[in-house]
């Protein structure tokens, strides 16, 4: 029998039972969010002069904006290798039940201003990001690409505005994995990690939002990006104008015509028979945005394949626990 368990720390307090938790994370957003519902009043244990005392308090008055938050969810006191959420209190709503709105590590950058400028010297994306996270608890991913930058002059802006600049001007995917900041292509090969395995009709609660599409019905738009010597982005687009957008980065291109040909080839590669949509499972298997998911169907083995998980939504409470995973681009077939 599986019994739901939680371990939630807010400020200096730890909770092993709550009313409700909702967590949303995506590779398309650098803002992770969590909402925690707690009773409006609670009896909390305090250590006073070595003696343990208990006081009844208004929950909303105990917590403050900026208090650190960490959420672990699991079964039978067994928790995954990483927390479901790490971040800070963004807002406390004194309602009944008390609602605590939380934000991931983008919260630290939102409160920080930086001079987002490369100066007269050439620099790299990684060096700019190192300057951005200085003085915070944020660390950089080892997978950030080596992109040369120059003539960056945005002035004094907030840390989150700097991340928006990267997304808009460098066409990169930017997101957090806990306190690890990543900026780069949407998919990172993870040979050291086993793909999450979902089997239709076995470990999925719902799969009615999962659709199988034929290659001829796929609408995809590819943006091929090349940065010239002045750090100006040259963009060529191929595919369907109304399709899902995929961005690729190209080096050593001699002409815009060649860049367009690269975009056209990539658009053709991304048209395939495969799944799209969302699947609803349990807390196990543990999955986060950026993970690989292998989808299997005993009735249609030819449809098996591995996909990128683009977003997750976790719901935990008295009514049970569910993980909703959004399936993105197909990475490989099952036999590859």
Automatic annotation (TrEMBL):
<protein>
    <recommendedName>
        <fullName>Phage protein D</fullName>
    </recommendedName>
</protein>
């Amino acid at each position: 029998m599986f019994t739901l368990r939680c371990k939630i720390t807010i400020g200096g307090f730890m909770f092993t039972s709550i009313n409700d938790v909702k967590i949303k994370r995506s590779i398309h957003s650098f803002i992770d969010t969590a909402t925690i519902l707690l009773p409006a009043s609670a009896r909390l244990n305090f250590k006073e002069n070595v003696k343990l005392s208990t006081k009844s308090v208004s929950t909303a008055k105990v917590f403050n904006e900026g208090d650190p938050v960490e959420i672990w969810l699991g079964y039978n006191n067994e928790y995954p290798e990483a927390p479901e959420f790490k971040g800070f209190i963004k807002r406390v709503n004194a309602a009944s039940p008390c609602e605590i709105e939380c934000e991931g590590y983008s919260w630290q950058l939102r409160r920080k201003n930086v001079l987002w400028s490369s100066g007269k010297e050439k620099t790299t994306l990684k060096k700019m990001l190192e300057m951005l996270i200085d003085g915070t608890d944020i660390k950089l991913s080892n997978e950030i690409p080596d992109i040369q930058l120059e003539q960056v002059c945005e002035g004094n802006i907030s840390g989150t505005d700097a991340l928006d600049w990267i997304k808009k001007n460098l066409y990169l995917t930017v997101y957090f994995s806990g306190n690890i900041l990543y900026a780069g292509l949407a998919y990172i090969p993870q040979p050291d990690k086993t793909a999450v395995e979902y089997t239709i009709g076995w470990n999925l609660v719902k799969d009615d939002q999962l659709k199988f599409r034929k290659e001829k019905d796929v609408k995809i738009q590819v943006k091929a990006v090349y940065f010239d010597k002045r750090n100006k982005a040259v963009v060529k687009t191929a595919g369907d104008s109304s399709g899902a957008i995929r961005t690729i980065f190209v080096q050593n291109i001699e002409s815009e015509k060649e860049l367009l040909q690269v975009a056209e080839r990539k658009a053709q590669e991304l048209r395939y028979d495969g799944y799209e949509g969302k699947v609803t499972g349990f807390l196990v298997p543990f999955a986060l945005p950026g993970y690989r998911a292998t989808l299997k169907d005993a009735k249609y083995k030819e449809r098996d394949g591995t996909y990128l998980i683009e977003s997750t939504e976790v719901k935990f409470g008295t009514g049970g626990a569910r993980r909703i995973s959004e399936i993105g681009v197909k990475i490989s077939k099952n036999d590859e």
